[in-house]
Structure formats: structure tokens, C-alpha cells
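Input record (one chain):
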Amino acid sequence: MIGAIAGDIIGSIYERHPIKNENFPLFQNGSRFTDDSVMSLAVARAILDQGNYGREMKELGNLFPDAGYGGNFCKWLVESEIIPYNSWGNGSAMRVSPVGFAFDTSEKVLQEARASAEVSHDHPEGIKGAQAVASAILLARQGSSKEDIRKVISGSFFYDLDRTVEQIRPEYRFDVSCMGSVPEGIIAFLDSTDYESAVRKAVSLGGDSDTLACIAGGIAEAYYKSIPSTIIAEVKRLLPGILWEILEKFEKEYPCIELGVEFHTTSL
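The corresponding structure, as predicted from the sequence alone:
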């Protein structure tokens, strides 16, 4: 799942300053982890500890209150109960990558993706977005071809995946809905040639860049099973110790790639 976290960090700087090409620095001053990373790691911790998705999100989210959550989710975080608010936003899809890496059957992935979504995003489109991304990751890591991934995801979730990044980019604008960002994130992966190109294509759409790159990056990691060591090193440098520790533990439990860096706990 480090591919999703790296995508979030790379895309973070361009969320408010959209770019419409693929030629940009991957990391620069201001690059940071956002709510996409915090919530993905909350889902990962729930899986590792067999915990409750909602409780893990609230606990970890409240440790990082300035990560960039949406207004409704901010309210959800501070409520004592876990009450969903019928959201169709892409928050359910941005955080679901651990599900696709941890479970090995379509039935289980669909079940757990739904469970991770509906604690907050219980609108059918919010659940569908999470299930589509997790299913794409499962297919990718189990060796399906891109065309098979395209056919299965479009056939199961009725997303239009017969477009290209070049066709989408000129008119695409910021969109926080699952309907308007999950297909585009998947297409960025489908059009890619390696992990880095998937993230670059996602960011170049000029929309909710951290989430688009988080979605594309998770699927690309599962498919290519390779991420440049320089990118992994930057993720380690930019993540607080508590978040890196969850990530490293998850990657050891559900390996897809070799992290290739040593872990030393740092302060928040």
C-alpha cells in the first residue's frame, strides 16, 4: 500500500495548484501526507489488529487533525458515535487500498471494502467507489492483465474506462465525488507504463490530485510490484514515526514490494 501513500504525498502539492502535464517534480517544499494517507493507514491498522474501521479512523484521524479532511468528515471525526452521513465522496476510495492488498478473494475484498466505506460513506456510490478500487488492486496483484482489469471493473461497477488520460485531461476539473474521480484514477493506471508514470498521469489530470494519485498509485504498486527506492525513501522521510510504523508493519504482513529502507521511530 506504500504506492497509495506515495501517490498522496506526490499529489498533495498540486491539489490547490493544478497542473495539466506530466513534467513536474515529484517532491518539493510543501509536499506532505494528507488525510488520504492517515485514513489509509487507519484502515491498515484495523486489518492488522482485527479492529473496527471506524474506531481506528477516529483515533488516528484525531492525532492528525490538520491533514485536510472535508468538512463533514471533520464533524464525523469528533463525534463519539460512528454514524455514517450518506457520503458519495471519494474519501471511501482513497483509503481502501489496504483491503485490496490484505484479502485474497473477490468476495472478501468486496465485503471488507464495503465495511471500510460504510462507517462514514454509506451512499451506494461511496461504497461502489471503494469496492472498485480494492477490486482493481486485487486483480492487479494477482496477475490480471490491464484489459482484464478494465473489463472486470467496468462490467462490475459500470464505470466508463474506455477513455484515456489524454482525452480526459483538457476538460477535467476538481471533483471529490467517487463518480467523478475513481474512474479517472483507474484510467491513469491503465494508461501507465510503470509506477511513476501512473502517478504522473493521475496528477496531470488537474483535479483532486492527491486522491487521484493515491488511487492510481495503489493499483500501480499491485500491478508493477516495483516502486523506485528514491520515492520510498521520501515517503519514510515525510511520514511521522507512528504512521511509518503502521505502514512498515502492514508491508511486512502483506508484502508486495521490498521497502528497502531501515525503520527508526521518530517523534510526532
